[in-house]
Amino acid sequence: GAGVSQSPSNKVTEKGKDVELRCDPISGHTALYWYRQSLGQGLEFLIYFQGNSAPDKSGLPSDRFSAERTGGSVSTLTIQRTQQEDSAVYLCASSPQTSGGPRQETQYFGPGTRLLVL
Amino acid sequence: KNQVEQSPQSLIILEGKNCTLQCNYTVSPFSNLRWYKQDTGRGPVSLTIMTFSENTKSNGRYTATLDADTKQSSLHITASQLSDSASYICVVRGNQGGKLIFGQGTELSVKP
Fold it and tell me: Residue A62: CB partners within 8 Å, gap ≥ 6?
């Protein structure tokens, strides 16, 4: 079956430009997560959506970052006025739910979008 | 200080050899611990999941152990293969429905 997909796979942009990264979660998964992975660093939580609940935005590093999830499915992460330090791999993950046992909470990751800000 | 610390940072072994990766965590209360494998250029893939009551869990040549008292976990890889070359990430969930806390990973390289 189809896994989590992300697009674009690679994005090169100039400093100051806005970028949009897209995530298509596994069908039926209610929870969706965005992470950032910088070179040599662990995954950094950015934001997560659970069903119709208000998203947990506590990991967003600045107000230049925002995300939305339309119709409980596809999600878009937007970075405005990109800076060089935004260069990283942006990973999206989805899970069936966020409670109900570890197997229901298992996150399935997409391949990531590699963002390079020049 | 990271709440999930992994060691070593990187490791090189010869094909066919065994190795053990370590994960120490301070996250409390603890719900479950996972090991993920991340191939270069790919997203992480779950290998094992353990709750506080489980001491060991196997997935093929991968065996994870957990000591909830000392807050330590290990991932043992038996008879390594070239395809085991990847980053191995230890991930801890603090409580039911809480966020995942990721270690920085151990970069394993298996040489022929």
Answer: none
